[in-house]
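[step 3/7] fold_predict: job queued, chain A
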Amino acid sequence: MKLFITTFILTINVITSISAQKQVTDERQIWLASFNQARLSNKWGLWGDFHFRMKDNFVGEPSIGIARVGLMYYLTDDARLTAGYSYINHFPAEGHKEISQPEHRPWQQIQWFTRSEKTRLMQWIRLEQRYRRKILNDETLADGYNFNWRIRYNFALFLPLTKKRFEPGGLQFLINDEIHFNFGKNITFNYFDQNRLFGGLVYQTSSHSQLHFGYMNVFQQLASGNRFRNIHAIRLFYFHNFDWRK
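[step 4/7] structure written:
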């Protein structure tokens, strides 16, 4: 609990100081995603999540597509390790207006949960290795990849709004924040990568699934260091946990 409170306060301070000094561009997007965790045994499970994002006044053009898979190891019911691979397609954008840019991203993560009758808290720390295809011009990809490391800390706090709480049919308020930092020899100006702050509602569709809907603000520093992107996003995520143990 102390970790996410400290991170949240530091994040707000960083964003406030940066946005007051630099050039910021506003964007409007929609983020859609499905998250799935399948437990195969007491110790092993599978992770899969899939994303599609739209930009340009929410629905004008596709922005990013992501497919992420992983192998999970359960330390306990409430703590698990994951290692996996992601493929990301960056649809045509500034700097590559006529082509998509592919990215390969191995990743490792520790995720843990804190549960009580009145609240649920999910946290993870994720390490990523980002291999983004080099770009020659607006129409052509170059040979090779740009590489950097990125670390992410994510927390999600669920607060029940109805008597059913976390039971099927229950409604919850969710506050979720995830901060990203870049590092590696290719990173010069943007060690702070981005912060994603979300507030919205969670509907408990079953004992093993949830539907999340709400508003997310993404504040991102671009590679030049003096340019920032401020994204106002509508976020719709579906989460499902399978248990295939006999």
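[step 5/7] annotate
The two ends are 34 Å apart (CA to CA).
The first helix runs from residue 2 to 19.
exit 0
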